[in-house]
Amino acid sequence: MRRSSKLVAVRVALSALAAVWLLGATVPTVAAASSRGGTRAIPTNVDTSVRAGNEAEQTIAINPTNPRNVVVMSTLPDVVSGLFEGYSFDGGKTWTKQVIANGGPLGTACCDEALSWDSFGNLWLTYLYTTSGTVPVAVSTDGGKTFTLVTNVQPTLQGRTRGPRPATKGTRFWSRAASSDQPSIATGAGSVWITYTSEPSVVVQAAGAPVTGLGVYGSFGAPQSVPTTTGKGDYGDIAIGPSGQVLVIYQFPTGGETGSKVYTSLDADGLGAGGFATPRLLASSKVGGFDFIPAQAGRSIDAEANLAWDRSGGAHNGRVYAVWTQETPNESNNTDIMFQSSDDNGATWTTAVKVNTDTGTNSQFMQSIAVDQATGYVGLSWYDCRNDLGTGGSGDTNGVANDDAQIWGAFSRNGSTFTANRQLSAGTSNSADAGSVLDYGDYTHAAFQSHLFEPVWSDNSNSTANNPNGALHKLDILVTRVNVT
What pLDDT is stored for residue 80 in this prediction? Predict the structure, then answer.
């Protein structure tokens, strides 16, 4: 669910309440797209959930062995616990929906779900429990119809502080055993890895297991900690390189609005005996761990650093990409999506460039990046408030500037130059109108496979005309599919 000091407060709240472009211009010089998305039509949006109540922070995966097989999941902030899941075997034309609830095979599933599909057809899932600090890992071998719990990774204590101490916001629970926050999962090179933050010491940890076939995998190794003191952090991601090397990314501090440092750490031999190296500073962001913007006035945002590694075997095989959120100047709500790449396993990075090409000062946030391993193409999507000037129109729902959001995106064929930005959501949403403890949640995800880019997001615009709560009330989970050729 994210933000260590918010996690227990939100769990308590949950209990109480019993997710075809032409390629061209470079990022630094790309001409600003029309505020309405230029001449390119907005792709068809599909409501995958069509259920009453809120859904937030979502994940999506496309099966590389059958790209018509898509799975989405989301957190259900309005119920005691459980995850919403939708799966499709016809490219998203129709969806089978279910709620993975208490007492089922996945236990007391709470939130922070993340999916990753490996090349063998195994769909891997991680999430958090409502009643335990361990990090569960589950797998599906039937396209997402059913999941089997594989393991519960127990975070280890590192430099634990004795007794309680003040939290930035809400209530933090200090237990005798370590707990966890915001897990992420990645597959590739015959392995599956998770990363998470071990609480209360706020140390980034990771664990991996070998995968050799459909339903054939080994045991997860003991958790490895990123070396401290710069190994402290949260709200990050993990990626696997072509030879099985593993990179994690995260930010510190994990609270406040005054800014943060974004770090990466490499495990050069992955499942081998070596561990994570001393972290390297990637970037300095003005976005802190609890940075409040009008579009996320209750939940706030963070730098939300994400990774994607090219294992396509193409021209840029081995290149790893990072995205994160910047704010200029500090506390201006002018947040932007920044992009960098590395050809040497994260030892050095290109200069950060802004992907969103709007010329205004509205917010862009919760970016997601994905690489199509069939082509090496790169896709990004994010929440975008550029069209909310508070003066009416399709980008403004209430006459207030910069608090309404749409989903926008951009693509790259060569990993360094991008398309003009394009609007992907047909409607405009307002998280405050949803009345959700999570607003839009803590992150978005996107999947990219065999030319098909598919972001998932929380939406209450009712642009699809089938949200049971109508327009500008509760949030449903929407997707769109773009054929990138």
Answer: 74
**pLDDT tens track for 137-179:** 999 999 999 999 999 999 998 643 333 323 333 322 334 468 8
Tens of pLDDT, residues 77-131? 988 778 999 999 999 999 999 998 777 889 999 999 999 999 999 999 999 999 8
Report the sign of the C-alpha dihedral through residues 184, 185, 188, 189, in that order. Answer: positive
Res. 259 pLDDT band, cuts 50 70 90: very high
Cα–Cα dist 53/34, whole Å: 34
User: For residues 204 and 397, what is the distance between their CA atoms, to the nearest angstrom?
Assistant: 40
Q: How far is CA 323 from CA 168, 235, 264, 308, 318, in A?
A: 25, 13, 12, 9, 17
| Total residue count of the chain as it appears in this document | 485
Task: Tell me which fold the domain 4-483 belongs to.
Answer: Neuraminidase (2.120.10)
pTM of the model: 0.91
* Domain extent listing, the chain: 4-483
The token pair at 84 is: 């919403």
Q: b or e along 174-196 (b: 16 or more beta carbons within 10 Å of the residue's beta carbon)?
A: eeeebbbbbbbbbbbbbbbbbbb
Alpha helices (H) in 355-416, listed in sequence order: none
Letter for the amino acid at 35? S
8 Å CB contact between 249 and 240: no
DSSP 417: B
User: What tokens does 20 get?
Assistant: 């075809």
